[in-house]
Amino acid sequence: MRLATFVTPDAPHQPRVGVLAAGLLLDLGRASALLEPGVAPPPMHMRTLLEGGAAALAQVQRLLAAAETRPEVRAQAAHALDAVQLLPPIPDAHKLLCVGKNYRTHLEELKRTDLIKELPNEPTGFIKLNECLAGHGADVVRPATVTHLDYEPELVFVIGKPAYQVKAEHAFEHVAGITILNDLTCRDTQKREVASGSRFWTAKNAPGFGPLGPFIITMDEVPDPYDIWVTCSVNGEQRMRVNTGDQIWKLPRIIEHFSRLVPLQPGDMFSTGAPGGVAVGKPNAEELFLKPGDVVECAFEAPHMVLRNRIVAPA
C-alpha cells in the first residue's frame, strides 16, 4: 500500500490520511463511512494510524481492496492527485533520525572536500526537525544567505511498532514502510559546523530543507530495501543513480544501535544517508548547487516513487 497525508482546497487546515487506489487518493474516512457503516474508521492521523499496528493497517487494506472493485466508492471518496496538497506523510514524528556517512561512494566525496576526517566505526546520526519538512510539490525557499544548497536523496524507514533494545535480527519486525527524504544541505554552513565539531546541523534544518514523501510504501511492496536504485534529477538532468546496497550500516544494525538507549515509537523515522553523486563532491560543484527555479526530483526506480520540489527565492 501507499499511504499519504493530504489536505483538500475546501479544508486546507484539516489533514487527512489516504491510500493510493487505481491512481486516485482514497480518503480513508469517507471510504470507511461508505464501505463499513457502523465500524470505527481508521485514524485520520498517520502517526495514530501506525500506532494502531497490524489491525489498523489490515483495515486500510480491506478498504482499499473493496474500493478498487467499486468505482462508485472511488467516485465519492477519492481525489485526483493533482486536486489535493500532499503533505509530508508523517509531519509530526516524535523523531526523524538521520544516519550520516553511510554510503561508501559519498564518504569518498566527503573526504575529498574536507567534510570528513575519518571513517566512523559505528552508525552516526543527527536529528532533522519537523519544522523543516515539506511535502511533495511544495516550493522550497532558498534563504538569501545560502549560496551552496545541495541535494541528498535518502531512503527512509518508518517505524511501525515500538522498538527498545531490539536485536538486529528482529529489526524489520518493527518497520512499517519506506519513503524518500531530500536532505537539503547548506554546504557552506555545514563546513563551518563540521570544523567546530557541532552535533546539531543548522545547515540541514532551515524551513523546507526536508522534502519528504509523497507516500509511505508499506513493506509488503518492498521486495528488497537493499536493492533499490535511488536517483536525483535537477531540471530533468539526472545527477546521481546509486543502489541502496552501497550502504555501510544496514537498518538492522542501525535499529540495534540507536534503540539501545532511545525508545522508538510508531511514526519515528530513520533516514539512512546520502548516496554518492551530490553536488559538493564534483569538480563543477559551483554550477550544480541548487538555484531558484530549479526543479529537483528524488526517486526510487522500483518500487517507483518520485518526490518533486521547486527551489524558489525569498518573496
Structure description:
This protein has two domains: about 1-85, Roll (SH3 type barrels); about 95-310, Fumarylacetoacetase-like, C-terminal domain (Fumarylacetoacetate hydrolase, domain 2, Alpha-Beta Complex). The strands form four sheets. Strands 1, 2, 3, 4, 5, 6, 7, 11, 12, 15 and 18 form an eleven-stranded mixed β-sheet that branches. Strands 9-20-19-16-17 form a five-stranded mixed β-sheet, with no helix packed on it. The two termini are about 40 Å apart. Helix 1 packs across helix 3 and helix 1 crosses helix 4 (about 70-75). The chain is built from eight helices and 20 strands. It has about 325 residues and is α+β, with helices and mostly antiparallel strands. It has helices at about 30-35, 45-50, 55-70, 70-75, 105-110, 185-195, 250-260, 285-290; strands at about 1-10, 10-20, 25, 80, 85, 95-100, 125, 135, 140, 150, 155-160, 175-180, 185, 210, 215-220, 230-235, 235-245, 270, 295-300, 305-310. About 20% of the residues lie in helices and about 30% in strands.
